[in-house]
Known about the structure:
This is Chaperone protein HtpG. By secondary structure, this protein is of the alpha+beta class.
Amino acid sequence: MATGSINVSxxxxxxxxxxxxxxxHEIFLRELISNATDAxxxxxxxxxxxxxxxxxxxxxxxxKIDKDAKTLTIKDQGIGMTGEExxxxxxxxxxxxxxxxxEKYKDSAKxxxxxxxxxxxxxxxxxxxEKVEILTKSYKEDSKAVRWxxxxxxxxxxxxxxxSDRGTEIILHIADDSTEFLEEFRIRELLxxxxxxxxIPIKFGTKTETLPLPEGAAEDAKPETIEVDNxxxxxxxxxxxxxxxxxxxDYNNFYRELYPMQFEDPLFHxxxxxxxxxxxxxxxxFPKLGNNLNIEKDKIQLYQNQVFVTxxxxxxxxxxxxxxxxxxDSPDIPLNVSRSYLQADGAVKKISSYITKKVADKMxxxxxxxxxxxxxxxxxxxxxxxxxxxxxDKFYEKSDKFALYxxxxxxxxxxxxxxxxIKPTQTDKDGKTVxxxxxxxxxxxxxxxxxxxxxxxxxxxxxxxxxxxxxKLEASKENxxxxxxxxxxxxxxxxxxxxxxSKLNDSDKExxxxxxxxxINDQKFTVQLEDLDSTDAPFTLTQPEFFRRMKDM
Length: 553
Ligand code: ADP
Ligand code: MG
């Protein structure tokens, strides 16, 4: 028997990385900016703990296009690298300096927000560049700047160079098939997509700013303009702050920062903030349902340490919350892996059930804090809540505290209050409490009126998923059944009032009933004559409940 180690050569692995590591070539920019951000964060950390004896200052990351030279440059003022470090971190594919850093500074840096993970990100540069140059100078005293050049083959050159300032410059010589990344609009688009909330300011070009006129300036004085750095990101988005720092207005502004085309304020926000058993922050919004709801485009966005990962959150966020908007940020969400991996990931599964619980808790506090406001918004949020009740047991279990059951008259009941109210009057011969509901107030108007005449409460349950919700409630609540207001079941209820004396005697009624039945000529309907004194409908037609429901499902 022989044992040995498989020798993976870079020659084999390079084309693989190029082709398969990322399905989307554009993410190279996210990766390089993440590295620049990490390099800056590391420097901040090292200066804080006194290990780096340099001024941290206000470092920025700069992205530059040089169309003539066909280069795209990402420049940072972070820790930089010595020659040995370049050999160690860059030349060793799949060795992550980020992971090493976290391992070394385990206790102090665990919440520093380091993005890197797998030691593969840097090589994504070769998806779009035919040659990559690194110019770098370490923060360490007496370190010499170095220049590393590689054309995507396993050979590279490393030499000393002139660079006086600390930090790293990654120069991509863009390949002919990737010239789109030399276009300003394309780079701006990518920066907006992935780095809108990056931790470190990112400069992309300059912009003109108009200075205010000095006091007492002449009326025809021209205001002075200056060129300033064009910083594309907000380094301090709402979800990184504490809820106590934020007012409703701040949340609304953040909502529009996320979805600039949304003009309507969201109904509610939910600020997520947890550090055990995993790290997760975020803000979710209940949007106002309406014409401008763009579910396709404006979705929940997933971030890792303020870097955009994806807005394909199916499997991470429970289905019923897909109608919400907002941001979820977790360092435990792997940046560069496939969707199927994401969904199978243990941390991701826990995130999903945590979010469900958190949303349920928030609904309880919203209804308790301002019942009136909550009732007003119920119509807009009910679809999410009802869908959640059907699909997530954890959510359903708590829903008695926040799910409302509105009547056609606009009274909103919580479950227990509803049952307490109707039990004495709406119990059938089998002892079941029967909840009457309408799903179309206009079409079922006369049935609703006649049920109300009899002293019954009629709920208005008009979401498309109501048949499923009813099924769920009937299966889990004891001694309760639902009957649509036009179903024949209503005739089995024990009436509250003694029946009034009808003007017709029994045989007249029989005759009349027969006549009506003959003229309708449909076995599915039951005819019932009403007390002619008290209702504007002389008789009602009802159908078996099961037949109704079959049609609705
Ligand atoms: P990861 O970020 O997952 O660690 P990468 O392949 O993206 O892996 O980068 C490899 C390593 O190279 C980093 O961990 C870091 O040590 C080093 N590095 C990359 N870019 C820079 C930079 N701009 N400044 C300093 N070090 C860098
Ligand atoms: Mg990286």
